[in-house]
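Marked as duplicate of an earlier ticket. Keeping the data here for the record.
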Amino acid sequence: MAKIPKVVSGFPEWLPEARRIEQQWLDTARQIFESYGYASINPSSVEEVSVITAKGEDVDKEIYGLKRLKADDDDKKGSRLALHFDLTVPMTRYVAQNYNNLTFPFKRYQIQRAWRGERPQEGRYREFTQADIDVIDNESISLHFDAEMVRLVHKILSAIGLDEVRTHVNNRKILQGYYEGLEITDPMKAISIVDKLDKIGDEGVSKLLQSDLGLSPELAQRCLDLAKIKTFDSSFVEQVRALGVTNPLLEQGLEELKYVMDSASDVPTGAVCADLSIARGLDYYTGTVYEGKLAEYPGFPTVFAGGRYEDLVGMFLKKKLPGVGISIGFTRIFGKMLKEGRLALAEKSPTNVLVIYDADADMAKLSAKAEVLRDRGINVEVFHDSAVKTAKQIRYADRKGIPYIMFAGETDEVKNIQTGEQVAMDINSWEPAEVGYQTRIVPSSKRSVNPL
């Protein structure tokens, strides 16, 4: 007996009933993105290696290079092309290349797969789907968009039923200005160290600040004092000022973060948190930064992240084009909800109606009636074999979760498989109780979410 090959580790595959939910999630995201005026782009999955590494991240070990199995001699020196490992770099290259044909501020969304050659583990895949939004503008970009990101992402995740995601927001200017006010000689290094707080804890961060930056224990503690400030409103401003550090950049960051938090004041309490420990370790972030966490699973990786940057597009174009954006890790969220049994898996098929095909029926007539229903937006499947008994055809519909069966003849009738009700139908006017498949995440048994 031949051995069935296994799927490659880190490349997830879902059964049809799960895949239907994933598609609905992405359709929901697409609809909400467009309701805010974001336009879809779909850059190539393959980029020049020099483009992918342009941000300066240490990602060489994670990049999947592309080469033909039988490469020419010129190709054996190393891969010139690679699969993109995120959607930000392709977007910046796309904006630079199409600058003269775009209208600014350019609001884009991008739903695509990406590839990273890292060790697969919970929440981390080698192939995954991301949904990104960014706004790019000339010279400067309105703070309005920083606030819009918070509202938009909350709306998407609420629409798919994920209510326990908490958006943590900070502003890098607060961190940099505070550390400058403390006269720390390398504030950017301090930011990168404090960003490890959730991984190594207070003691680990304090030790690194002392060993790597030469800070005294007292000064390291003052850094931690800022990181411990977390509020669900704008009260963080006075808490920061109470620490006694003054700096113009710090004040600017406080005002910008206050604007974002005030703009999100009507989002449900607890959904958005001003968290002054969030830094996002990437150096290109210059203002607002975001991280989304599953409040019920505190040890699980970030499910969305992003922030404001000044000059990513400038890597490829001699123009100042600042932007702000967020990337949602849909595969990470979906895989976690699937593992935890939080998805209400149901229909294995999009079919609303199965047309029964018996020995006396005319397939051409059955197909014609099915087309009438399809043209009206109803998904119809005509059974393929008249030799199969009606009971087995009904069992087939039941196993696939098809809610209705249709008996076509001189008088057409439709039967609800769940209730057993069978009535006469007019194919030109009949409507099923529900067309399409809607799902929401099943509430967790551990609904209590830890407060700050």
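See parent ticket for discussion. The chain has three domains: 10-164+296-345, 172-263, 353-424.
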